[in-house]
# Entry
Amino acid sequence: MEKRWNLISAESAIVHSLQEALKIHPILCELLVQRGITDFEAAKQFFRPSLDHLHDPWLMKDMRKAVERIEQAINGNQKILVFGDYDVDGTTSVATLYQFLKQLSPKIDYYIPHRYKEGYGISKIGIDFAKKNNFDLIISVDCGIKSTDLISYAKELGMDFIICDHHLPDEVLPPAIAILNAKQVDCKYPYKELCGCGVVFKLITALAQTYNLPAASYLQYLDLVATAIAADIVPITDENRTLAFFGVQKVNDNPSPGLKALMELAKQTGPMRISNLVFAVAPRINAAGRMDDAKKAVHLFIEQDYDKALAFGSVLQQDNLDRREADTTITEEALALIEADPFHQTKKSSVVFQSHWHKGVVGIVASRLIEKHYKPTIVLTQSGDVIAGSARSVNGFNLYEALHACRTHLIGYGGHFAAAGMTMEVGALEGFKIAFEQAVASRITADQLTPEIIINAELSIDDIGIQFYNIISQMEPFGPENMRPLFIAKNVYDTGYTKLVKEQHISFNVTQGKTNVRGIGYNMPELLKIVKSGKPFDLVFQLQLNEWQGTQSVQIQVLDLRASA
# Structure
């Protein structure tokens, strides 16, 4: 699939000024300025994260109210229920708050709604469970900000609510005792991009200060916080970057038994990075809720005995194997449907349906289909008497707006710019397909239908070295708004040693005339002819460390290439 290359820049005067201050390679200064780091002090804070950089939890609106209500519950011997979502952010949030509160009171329990029986967020079944079991206070984590009616219902039943959430609030807020959410318009908390587990971390920090507990009482959960930050794809900036940095450190040095078990089962042997948490750990946690019941993930996180944690982890591992099998099968079937459609080439969207597809993986399948056919995509299945499904967007296209335009065909829908879910009557499917295609076609641009690679800087092959790489690696953890830098090298030549490996991957050996660099390009066999043409070509790549028999060298991972202009 052809991609658009977008080489971004930074203001040269600021880059020059930063280079004068830091005395490092100007390209490194360009990368920093692109990330909003423009002076020596900002660079020092960026390269030397410290827990002292974390913001005061008491700056968050309603923090005092939340802590006082929890104190009241503990002093009054009241029962507290921690209520969370079924994804990674939700289950880590529940495990973190549940374990912390257990240090203060025995009357703590937790609740995770069943994805298919109760749906996302606060549920009536969950509230009725709390009432039946005589809970006085419910603390929702990673959900609740939009549950005005259900929290009103809980209030009528005589139960108080504290909301810890990071999703965008509506104008009308639920009638909770306290709402901890930095995205509230009148919240003065200086950082707005915490994930759900990040908000919980601020709450337990404030509680630890109130009860004069040592910092270790809340810092011990940083590995769970980092896992949530990684999985929830929040910006790795400011406080999130600090939490992720120290959280990944804890993952490597002293992980909780549950995380250690998952790493063992995922065969993660080297130093863990945010990317390992995203691609190896998070899918195993999410699989519990996708395939069965996410309570298993919380059982895993709160288990202190490693052997028992390994047993819980094995159950999640099996869920993940089942998820992958379903995912692979459905992706193949969906691609066959798309490619059998004679009009698909000219369509601006993909909508596929089979009644037997597993509801838990349709969102993943939609993302897989976009990798092959870069269009806004909806994957639908039968759920009881209705059709339900998930949608995924391409970069820059507002999916929610397109769904809103088709609302007359839907029973319900929800989501945001990039991802959404919907339900419809069985008889509405064909009309919806037509309406969605019209909604997308009338809004999408040609550029949005071509995947874009954001390139940070042009880098000479001669400048690739271990010192340069080491400074790049100090920019970790990488993630949204602090992505691993991508470079372009122009007019490079094959040295004669480039070859195809396993019929799919290109093993590179290229030069610009002076030095050679080795590298790999995955799943691009069709581009080998450009490399072997004898003519110059341009590469987009990121840097990797190669270790062989105790010797370290820097190599490149090629993401795309084309003949030089």
The mean pLDDT is 95. The chain has three domains: 57-315, 341-449, 452-563. Residues 57-315 form a domain with the inorganic pyrophosphatase (n-terminal core) fold (CATH 3.90.1640.30). The first strand starts at residue 4 and ends at 7.
